[in-house]
Amino acid sequence: MLNWRPRKQSGKQLSTSYAAKLGRLETIQADDWRTLVTRTGSEAGAALLGLCRPQGPGKCDHSRFERVVNVVTSLPFVAIGYDTMKKMTTSEGKMYGASIMGVGAGAVVYHTSPNKYRNLGRKIDYWCIGLSSTALMRAVLPSTPPVATAAAIFMTPFQPFVVASANALAVEAHYLKRAKQRGDLKRAHQLHITTGVLGMFCFVLEEVYPKIPLVHTAWHGLSAFGMAGMNHLVADTEANRTK
């Protein structure tokens, strides 16, 4: 008969074996923690984006040609913003000019985004518009409380359309008031209102009949013209501040 006995390990061998097992265990635990942190961060980011607006990829860019045209018609915003920055004298006016350039950049990001990232690209586009409306509010109504400005900035990722609409209503009411007080602003205000109404018509038309081509392109052109017309009001505000 064979007399088998388990092989005895020396204290040094036991220590080495235990250290190896402990090392493997620590590696597994570290990998688990990294996986947990990565997964948690990813899920939290996805949940946060789920709370942000707008949702979905939008209803434009049905062809490569339409994408190219929409990118090209985004560039006037950059030119208008640059011109605004050069002409305005106050920090609020220059910030508004920079924000218009941001609107153009956001539109380019959206219309050049691959299908995989169009949801995010559309969010960036809307956020830039919301932030620009807040900058316009500061440029036209510099007495706006800083708390209101901070609240608008905070709310922009979650409700950009609401923020932009609220700012637009306040600014348009002020523009109408100043146009009644100053005759030289009346024509600029009329052109601004006309392009604004036509632009909103295109915005709604795209939502209702998304398959009509180049409606978004028309909205770009009308919006750019309307933003350029707003510079008359910003300049008027700056002139009053220097008196």
TrEMBL record:
<protein>
    <submittedName>
        <fullName>Uncharacterized protein</fullName>
    </submittedName>
</protein>
<keyword id="KW-0812">Transmembrane</keyword>
<feature type="transmembrane region" description="Helical">
    <location>
        <begin position="95"/>
        <end position="112"/>
    </location>
</feature>
<keyword id="KW-1133">Transmembrane helix</keyword>
<keyword id="KW-0472">Membrane</keyword>
<feature type="transmembrane region" description="Helical">
    <location>
        <begin position="147"/>
        <end position="170"/>
    </location>
</feature>
